Amino acid sequence: MGESCLQSVVITLRASGPDRAADREALVAAVASAAAVGTVSVRAGRVCGHCGSVDHGRPWATADGRPVGVSLARTPGVTALAVGPGPVGVDVERASRVAAAPLDAFTAGERSRAAGDVRLLAACWAAKEAVLKRDGRGLRVDPTAVDVDVERGVAVLDGVEQPVVVAWPEPDVVVAVAAGGVSVTWGA
Questions:
Q1: How far apart are CA 71 and CA 167, in angstroms?
Q2: Does residue 20 sit in helix, strand or coil?
Q3: Which residue among 39, 105, 129, 136 is the one 20 to 30 A from 150 at the CA level?
Q4: Residue bearing the bigger pLDDT, 99 or 26
């Protein structure tokens, strides 16, 4: 297939669509925009690395026959799309929703560093999901196996530090990106 046509990860935020077909259409448009190709040059789908199903699982895409890394995430009202040169994970969360989550999803270090700040816990959760999506195992891994330090911009998984980028496009919305240290830019 060749090398990716991208040099950085491009993040696109949009209003949530009504269904998976709308998500796929948005993903194709994001890939086309990031790769500077027409949508007819983009192929995209899903495949589950665990069972092989194409009805669910990790998204994949090519642009002009070249592979690109893709990831998508949703929270009420917002969809985040990531397109990059290699494996990438993105997550988007509303801090107000994470506030209602049980604290057993967080490590002792995360709870200590957050000191009760729900926004920091939301950023930790988004970073955990982004790292696990990039890793390919997703939430088949216990979230407490990932320890996130938002201030340092790292998450530790399997004893290895993973760089993460965290941004707040709205006061209640946090986006986390795991791309192995590849630069992250924000698309239109």
A1: 16
A2: helix
A3: 136
A4: 26
Q: How far is CA 77 from CA 13, 42, 52, 121, in A?
A: 10, 26, 30, 20
Question: Cα–Cα distance between 40 and 35 in angstroms, integer?
Answer: 12
pLDDT tens per residue, range 4-46: 678 999 999 999 999 888 988 999 999 999 999 999 999 999 9
Q: Check residue 49 and give its pLDDT.
A: 81
Contact 73, 91 (CB under 8 A): yes
The separation between CA 159 and the C-alpha centre of its own chain, rounded to angstroms, equals 21
| Closest C-alpha among 85, 80, 98, 110 to residue 176 | 80
How many Å apart are CA 104 and CA 22, to the nearest integer? Answer: 34
Q: How many helices (H) and strands (E) does the chain have?
A: 4, 11
CA distance 143 to 128: 7
Min mean pLDDT across 29-33, 79-83, 85-89, 136-140 is at 136-140
CA atoms within 13 A on the CB side of 16: 11
Helix residue ranges, H only, the chain:
20-35, 95-98, 108-114, 118-135
Q: pLDDT tens-digit profile of 142-178?
A: 999 999 999 999 999 999 999 999 999 999 999 999 9
